[in-house]
């Protein structure tokens, strides 16, 4: 729990929560997959939505995740930007894709903490 007036500078979470090999290691062995995220939220204050790198979830899906996470005040989401933005367009001429991402991720409301841009290994620095 955060102390009143104290700013938390570090949140520890994982990239996603839907991993079968966690069953019996992190998740109780009899926990149904549809309950994994609710269980995860009880144990971590943040998560990276990695699925958005491959396919953009709907705004409604983001809102459902936010609703589940609302059981833990202060829970935060990091959303990974689409590979279309980072790997295909290489950050150029990606305004429309970025707008779609931000509109959809807006379903998280104030729980959206950041958007992560994972660049390809060969991406050259241009300062």
TrEMBL record:
InterPro entries, per the entry: DUF72 (IPR002763), UPF0759_sf (IPR036520)
A Pfam short name: DUF72
Domain of life: Bacteria
Descriptive protein name: DUF72 domain-containing protein
Species in which this protein is naturally found: Thermorudis sp
